[in-house]
Amino acid sequence: MDLADKLIKETTTMAVYRRLYDLVLSGRFPPGEWIRERELKEMLGVSSTPIREAMRMLVQERILESVPHHGVRVKELSLKELKDLYELRAELEGMAARLAAERGNSSHFKQMENLLNLEQAHRESTGHAVDAIELNNRFHDLVVEAGGNLALKNTLHHLRAGINWIQVMAWNRNKERHALTDDQHRGIWEALVNRDPQLAHARMHEHVWDTISLMLNSRQEEASEQAGESDQAD
């Protein structure tokens, strides 16, 4: 395989990866659903190789899971797995905010301010959960970028990959979450602009824990609804 062919293959694989990631995030493939190679080939118009490689990447990121002798499906995280992930994420996001307060510059803070204005405009218009979470992630990315720690950035990116779709479901259940997130982001931003590392850490930590509380409650409500539907079927 020459260099040109290799680059085409890598580009196709990443395009399939991003598209499949978006399909899972949007709920097109919900938790527990099997991902069929034939269906993806028809949907995306590509060969088997980039699909298999993209699926392998998503398995490594814990978005999908490979079940021996059955195939690949969207991973369902248990309540404990969710809580474990967010315990770690709360500490790391708090660290990112502290570093951003210490190391961030005026350009970082201006970008965050612009994004806060976008969040408010989005909430007042469509309020779509997938778009809102994308804006939420961009804000967190800017905080991490301002902190300047590449290892921390890579770790948080990996942690986030497997839980975005859970946030979508939780935010769809709680329409007030968008406004609360906007307010908390602004509070974090104010602490960063004022160069207050301790306050920035505390506000970010609280923000992340509020998110996990919402998500855990959403999962518990979903489980109760499913149990009720099962009882009615019996």
Give a structural overview.
The protein is mainly alpha-helical and 234 residues long. The chain has helices at 3-25, 37-44, 48-60, 79-103, 106-124, 129-147, 150-161, 164-173, 177-193, 197-233, and strands at 34-35, 64-67, 71-74. Helix 4 runs antiparallel to helix 7, helix 5 packs antiparallel against helix 6 (129-147) and helix 6 runs parallel beside helix 9. It is globular, with a radius of gyration of 19 Å.
Strand content: under 5%
Average of the residue pLDDT scores: 83
Q: Give the helix/strand class.
A: mainly alpha
Quaternary state of this entry equals single chain
Helix segment tally: 10
Principal-axis shape? globular
Q: Largest sheet, described in full?
A: 3 strands, antiparallel
- What is the total tally of β strands? 3
In percent, how helical is the residue content? Answer: over 70%
Radius of gyration: 19 Å
First and last CA, distance? 58 Å
String of helices and strands: HEHHEEHHHHHHH
**Largest sheet: spatial strand order:** 1-3-2
Low-confidence stretches: 3-8
List the helices and strands and how they pair.
Layout: H1 3-25, E1 34-35, H2 37-44, H3 48-60, E2 64-67, E3 71-74, H4 79-103, H5 106-124, H6 129-147, H7 150-161, H8 164-173, H9 177-193, H10 197-233
Antiparallel strand pairs: 1-3, 2-3
Helix pairs in contact: 1-3, 4-6, 4-7, 4-9, 4-10, 5-6, 5-9, 6-9, 8-10, 9-10
